[in-house]
Specification:
The structure is a single chain. By secondary structure, the chain is an alpha+beta fold. It is built from 14 helices and 28 strands. It folds into four domains: 307 residues, 2-Layer Sandwich (Nucleotidyltransferase, domain 5), CATH 3.30.420.40; 65 residues, no CATH class; 127 residues, Substrate Binding Domain Of DNAk, Chain A, domain 1, CATH 2.60.34; 92 residues, Up-down Bundle (Substrate Binding Domain Of Dnak, Chain:A, Domain 2). The strands form eight sheets. Strands 3, 4, 5, 6, 13 and 14 form a six-stranded mixed β-sheet that branches. It has a four-stranded mixed β-sheet with strand order 17-16-15-20, sandwiched between helices. A hairpin with a 2-residue loop joins β18 and β19. The termini are far apart. The structure holds adenosine monophosphate.
């Protein structure tokens, strides 16, 4: 692929010209974009303000104008319902997985059939992918303005604990932002590259990357061998960071100065600001003193150590678990790299260095190290670092067709070969006995635009209600590029498989054209996908409501039955519409109406069981 230069403006393939591939750190709190400038990795600053960090915040106004970064962050306290932050915590996740995040000031909605999350801003619904794409577009534009070049190709970093869905969602966000995402790189791998580890292919090393930011902590142990990084283990805490230390400083002051517990929002914000200032000041070994509502609050370095200690100890539990899982000993670790703003805390640096009996690497700015590493990885992919090992990768994504003709990617483009990836699916019709599995190659959201590689049928699935069978589909590419697809119904162990040998029959030009099309059509493709998904949700709800009515015929009141029936009528009516947000609001409305009924029936069944009518009956 490296030999084909794509002119995205014209949609043609050009003579190769030197191109810049940017590295992007798409962070929970802040994001950065970097590039290689004559062999040196540099963060690209804002042209006017000269700032490097872009707060990962998006604001959307009544006219659907979008603000990203500092300008959006300013709206956080003014219009919290329309200002989106921490979207990375929602990316590629289902509603159940984020149920414990309750501190968000904006509204989350769910699609029951897929579990997908939508964010409601006024009357519009946004996908976390769309919102992440807005941040990526902003970074792309920044890079284009500063470098005076069209930027198309990028490497984006993700935490090493990100699963398949989260990685695919990051790729999709890139595509939607008009970027060709060459590689998704683990953040600790990028940090290692920034420190020059992994640039010499003879080198073998074990690296521990300790990443403590504002809101999250993780530790990863990596093995570097023959120029390839392997994540041996990773542990962490998604609710532990510098913000918690600030909160603990506030609690410390509350006690020390007997401050009133009931404070106004303005006072709370000011206290939080003072606590962060105090932390940074005391960390620099100076005594912090300031006035708050007539009281002089202070913090010195030994008080700071006392406050930080329990948080440090919590990170050590994860560190010990990560070392245990990697099956290594502390002495085996060659390098300790620090990432994230909170690793500037001297106390943490000292304690870590004692624990590992080694000095810790702190020469690079902890906020920049991941983006710098991403730029280095991008440079390697651009072919500018000739020493680096070139590995075989999948030229296009591979996946299967799901309901509504959607492409569900199982192995992403540019994945290292050999590879094996699996994903679970289920049936959509009650009593379904056969499941057709059609395999496609390509980057578009609808299979009709991709290349079909083959299909087979998983037969003899025992009849079960829709959604109950668990079917695992595994894609395996061997070192010769041969794809094997295996489908297995887990409950009954029914297996069927197919081998596809002619995967690489596309020319480089055909593949390049496929990429051009996927980026040019990303916006339309994703909105078509969104429409199909919400229609799938409507069908799912209609089936469920009908089943619910039948099963609870005797328990439901007349009024409840007519509520559910009117929901079914509304959903049937809206099914043919092409207004995605309109359908979504009917779905939301029906969910709201039926939720209480479902709760009452559930309570009734539990009570029934407790009174001995349900479970006890079976014992008689
Ligand atoms: P990050 O999410 O990586 O940007 O890290 C942000 C966190 O780093 C915030 O909690 C900051 O208060 C903290 N931080 C930034 N500078 C310092 C410093 N000099 N000393 C201690 N903590 C800091």
């Amino acid at each position: 692929m490296g030999k084909v230069a794509i002119n995205f403006k014209e949609g043609t393939i050009d003579q190769a010209e030197e191109e810049i591939i940017v590295g992007i750190d798409l962070g929970t709190t802040n994001s950065l974009v970097a590039y290689m400038d004559s062999g040196i990795a540099r963060i690209i600053p804002d042209q006017v303000e000269n700032t490097l960090l872009v707060p990962s915040v998006i604001f959307i106004d009544e006219e659907n104008n979008i603000l990203v970064g500092d300008a959006a962050k300013k709206q956080l306290s003014i219009q919290p319902n329309s200002t989106i932050y921490s979207v990375k915590r929602l990316l590629g996740k289902s509603f159940q997985e984020v149920a414990n995040i309750n501190s968000l000031t904006y509204q989350l909605k769910t699609e029951e059939s897929s579990g997908a999350i939508k964010i409601k801003i006024r009357e519009k619904y946004y996908d976390p992918i769309e919102l992440s794409a807005m941040i990526l577009s902003y970074l792309k534009k920044r890079a284009e303005q500063v470098l005076q070049k069209k930027i198309i190709k990028a490497v984006i970093t993700v935490p090493s604990y990100f699963n398949d869905h989260q990685r695919q969602a990051t790729r999709d966000a890139g595509k939607l932002a008009g970027l060709d995402v060459l590689r998704i790189v683990n953040e600790p791998t990028a940090a290692s590259l920034a420190y020059g580890i992994g640039l010499n292919k003879q080198e073998s090393k074990i690296v521990a990357v300790y990443d403590l930011g504002g809101g999250t902590f993780d530790i990863s142990i990596l093995r570097l061998e023959d120029g390839v990084f392997d994540v041996l283990s990773t542990h962490g805490d998604t609710a532990l960071g510098g913000d918690d230390i600030d909160q603990a400083i506030i609690s410390h002051w509350m006690q020390k100065y007997n401050l009133p517990k009931e404070t106004s929002q303005i006072d709370r914000n000011r206290l939080r600001q003072l606590a962060e200032e105090a932390k940074i000041c005391a960390n620099g070994n100076a005594l912090f003193q300031n006035e708050f509502n007539g009281v002089i609050v202070s913090l010195d370095s030994s008080e700071l150590e006392t406050v930080v200690l329990p948080f440090f100890e919590r990170t050590m539990i994860s560190c010990k678990n990560a070392i245990k899982d990697s099956k290594l000993k502390i002495e085996d670790i060659d390098e300790i790299l620090l990432v994230g703003g909170s690793t500037r805390l001297e106390f943490i640096r000292k304690q870590l260095s004692q624990f590992f009996s080694k000095s810790v690497n702190t020469s690079l700015h902890p906020d920049h190290v991941v983006a710098l590493g991403a730029a280095i990885q991008a440079d390697i992919l651009a072919g500018n670092n000739k020493d680096f090992l070139l590995i075989d990768v999948t030229p296009l994504s591979l996946g299967i067709e799901t309901i509504g003709g959607l492409m569900d990617t199982i192995i992403a483009r540019n994945s290292k070969v050999p590879i094996s990836q699996a994903r679970s699916y289920t049936t959509s019709i009650d009593g379904q006995k056969n499941l057709k599995i059609a395999i496609y190659q390509g980057e578009r959201e609808l299979v009709q635009h991709n290349f079909k590689l083959g299909e087979f049928t998983l037969k003899n699935i025992p009849p079960m209600p829709a959604g109950l069978p668990k079917i695992e589909i595994q894609f395996l590419i061997d070192p010769d590029g041969i794809l094997k697809v295996k489908a297995k119904e887990i409950r009954t162990n029914t297996v069927q498989e197919i081998e596809i040998k002619s995967m690489q029959k596309l020319s480089e030009e055909q593949m390049a054209m496929m990429l051009i099309d996927s980026i040019k059509n990303a916006q339309t493709d994703l909105s078509v996908r969104g429409l199909i998904e919400i229609k799938n949700e409507v069908n799912y709800l209609i089936t469920n409501y009908n089943r619910f009515l039948k099963q609870n015929e005797t328990i439901l009141t007349q009024e409840e039955k007519s509520t559910i029936n009117s929901c079914i009528v509304d959903l049937q009516k809206v099914k043919e519409s092409d207004d995605k947000d309109g359908i979504q609001s009917i779905v939301d409305h029906c969910n709201q109406l039926t939720e209480q009924i479902a709760h009452r029936i559930m309570d009734y069944s539990i009570q029934d069981a407790l009174q001995g009518k349900g479970i006890a009956d079976t014992n008689e």
